[in-house]
Design a protein that fits this description.
Elements (H helix, E strand, L loop, with lengths): L5 H11 L6 H4 L12 H8 L12 H14 L5 E3 L9 E4 L16 E19 L7 E7 L2 E7 L5 E7 L1 H13 L4 H4 L2 E4 L2 H10 L3 E8 H8 L2
Antiparallel strand pairs: 1-2, 2-3, 3-4, 3-5, 3-8, 4-7, 5-6
Helix pairs in contact: 1-4
Length: about 220
């Protein structure tokens, strides 16, 4: 499968979207350091509900460039805009495949704007971590399948179905948009640095419990 580079996608957006602002402003050099906000920095900021993107305000393109720059230079699965100080409903997906974990150059560069989950199916578990939550690693129950509506970078409404591990990644980032951290909903919580997490996951991997059925029902059973 051909994956367009993030630069290609952004160049298309800048050239296709009609905008009243100066194109050079959209392509300004993002030379400043970008780092995620952590629970030690400002947990209240992370717990806010992000606002919907207004497509007539083209600053969202700059916001996406910030997300793209960070994700293309850091080993993360994905990132919600609020984690980088931008409380807007934007998700950037870098890697939603467990088979690509060891590929530092893999970047799906998928951008979801104003996403809305329409249906959640099945049940999975994974020991999740988060760039904003430091060494807090939690065992989190997520749906196996998610049906989603969202807008792409050009403002076009789309539908998509996420299954398997990509549904876990999406669900984690979607929670961020609503001010929910994985450590808030974890079935179990451990303190573990990144190096130890890598070893731990070799024996505590992604687990599929149900591929069908109502996610909310299964979740209630897990939380009993």
């Amino acid at each position: 499968m051909h994956i367009e580079s993030f630069g290609d996608i952004m160049n298309k957006a800048v050239s296709i979207i009609e905008t009243d602002c100066n194109p050079n402003e959209l392509k300004e050099n993002l030379s400043f350091e970008i780092r995620p906000i952590t629970i030690n920095d400002d947990v209240d900021f992370l717990r806010q509900r992000s606002k919907e993107v207004e497509f007539n305000d083209k600053s969202y393109l700059d916001d996406i460039k910030v997300l793209g720059k960070y994700c293309s230079t850091h080993e993360v699965f994905a990132m919600a805009a609020v984690q980088l100080g931008i409380p807007k409903r934007i998700i950037y997906l870098r890697n939603t495949s467990l088979t690509k974990i060891d590929d530092p150059n893999w970047n799906e560069a998928r951008v979801l704007i104003n996403p809305v989950i329409k249906e959640q199916i099945g049940l999975t578990k994974y020991w999740e971590a988060c760039a904003s939550c430091l060494n807090n690693m939690g065992l989190v129950a997520r749906p196996y399948k998610i049906k989603l509506e969202y807008y792409d970078i050009f403002g076009k409404k789309r539908k998509a179905t996420f299954t398997n591990f990509e549904a876990t990644v999406l669900s984690h980032e979607y929670d961020h948009l609503n001010g929910i951290l994985h450590m808030d909903i974890a079935l179990e919580l451990l303190q573990m640095p990144k190096e130890e997490r890598v070893e731990f996951r070799l024996t505590h991997g992604y687990e599929i419990l149900h591929k069908t059925g109502d996610y909310e029902h299964y979740l209630k059973e897990e939380c009993k």
